[in-house]
Structures are given as C-alpha cells and as structure tokens.
Amino acid sequence: MDPVFLGQLLLNGIVIGLIYGLIATGLTLQFGILHIVNFAHGEVLMVAMYAMAALLPLFGGDFFVAFAVLVVLASAVSLLAARGLLAALATGGDGGGIFEKSLLLTLGVSIVLVNGVQQLFTSNPQMATTSFGYGAFALGEIRLTYAHALASVVAVVTFGALFWFLLRTNAGRALRAVAQNREAALMIGLDPTRVARRAVAVSLVLSAVAGAVLVPIIVFQPTVGQTLLLKAFAVVVIGGMGNIGGAVAVALGLGVLESLVGGFADIVWQNAVAFVAMIAVLAMRPQGLFAAAIRKG
Question: How far is CA 99 from CA 38, 154, 293, in A?
C-alpha cells in the first residue's frame, strides 16, 4: 500500500468530514432543542452556495470579503426565518403535532427553494472561482489545495466558536438547559420560544457557512443540498439524535471512511457507505453511538 496515497485519502476525508460536521451540527441542534427534523436544511446550504457565487464577482473574487458579507446576510435572514418557522409550527392552539408539522412545512420549503433557484439559475452545474485560485500546499508528496485548507480552518474555528458559545455563554447555557429539560428551564425563567428561535438561527448559519466553504471545492446545482442533507441525517442518526459532539465525531469518521472507500473500492460505494453504516448502527444500537449523553424520556 502506497503511504502517500493513503495519506492523501485520509487528508481529503478529514476535510470533507469537517464540512459534513458543519451541516450535521445544525440539524442536531434543531432536533435537540425543538425535536423537529428540518428537510429544508440542505436547501439553506444550496442557497448559500448560490449567494456566495453571486457575491464573489462583486468583490473581485475575494473569498474573505464575500464570506464575511454572506455570514452577516445569513445571520439576518436566519433570525427572520427562525421567527417564521416557529410561528408556523405554533399554529393550531396547543402546539401539538409539532414534529409532523415540521416534516410537512420544511419539505414544502425545500421544494419551493429547489424549484425557485432552478428557475432563476437553471439546473446547469456551476463552479465559482476565488482569488486564491487552484494552488495547493505541499506536505511532502501530499497536497492540500488552498480551498480545502481554508474549508478546514473555517470549520475548526466554527466548531470552536460553537462549543465556546454553548459552554461559556449564558445564551448557550440556555440552549443546553432547554434541550435537557424544557419544563425545568421554564420554571427558572427561561423563555423556550426565544431559545428555540436562537437555536434555529444558529443552525441555519452553520449550514450557510458550510455552503460558503464548499463553493470553491465542488461543482454545484439546485439539488446539491439534498444529497448532502441525506448524509447529514445519517451522521445525526449514527451519532445520536441531539448530540452535537457525537455528530462532529461521526462526521469526521464518515468523511475518512468515504475517502478510503472511494480510493480502494468501486466509486459507487462511496455514496452508499454512510447509509450502510447507518443501517448497521440502527440494527445494533438504535439510539446511536453517543446516545448516553442524551436526555432520556
């Protein structure tokens, strides 16, 4: 076995795993706080990719300026979207059936976004170019493109900021409190609706960040979010629904596993490996690999 080839596969796998982690943590955050499944989460990523592709030419291909503008726009839109989503889910008096409502509502939003973007930009594959071009770092004989390196750094910094927010800030502690026991959080004066709104906004921004770093790496089209969303669902299920640390760990493992399978086996198995792993985990441990950290009952 060629050690250089193996090292290249492992490095590529870590990068894609970090991006999977950005998508999956947003999903698991929403489930942990609201107990909903957001089928439009992948379309948020897709819209962010098209937005990033539109912003880059406006700033001369400067990724960092375009990225900063996108994060600001995504934050503002996410706050509005969170209000709209929670208001729609709260209709019907007692708020019952929120899980079923979330499935129908987010699936409808997903269909609208996919077809809307396809109408505006067609279904032709696109790829954006940035100011740092297609150069690469050389780690001996192993190469890491500037785009992949940037995606890795952004993902690691984002994870660090997310865990700092959850563990060190009052707003983050409120999120964790509501996730652990909604009734007890309400008794100590926390507003679950406000906390839920914050959780949705953070999760959507995470998805937008993932879309932004993917723009220089992959060719994309209006359906790109659906494939990535399915893999993110597999990550969340394997790690344990609602467990953010589990989602990050599984995402890294899945990225490496996909890269190794793509390098040593038929390429068709690369996309299937996530779901094969999910089925195996569900058969042996239905609650997920890291479910011990999740509240029971």
Answer: 10, 32, 22
Looking at residue 133, its amino acid is: G
Q: Six-digit token pair at 21? A: 């982690």
CATH architecture of the region 3-293: Orthogonal Bundle (1.10)
- pLDDT tens by residue, 89-138: 765 544 557 777 888 888 999 999 999 999 999 889 888 888 777 788 88
- Give the residue extent of every domain in the chain: 3-293
**140: left (phi > 0), else alpha (psi -120 to 50), else beta?**
left
How many other C-beta atoms are found inside a 10 Å radius of the C-beta of residue 72? 10
3-state secondary structure of 91: coil
Instruction: With beta carbons less than 8 A apart as the criterion, state whether 105 and 88 touch.
Output: yes
- What residues have CB less than 8 Å from 127, skipping those under 6 apart? 215, 216, 218, 219, 220
- The owner of tokens 């993917």 is 214
Given a contact cutoff of 8 angstroms between Cβ atoms, the answer to whether 29 and 236 are in contact is: no
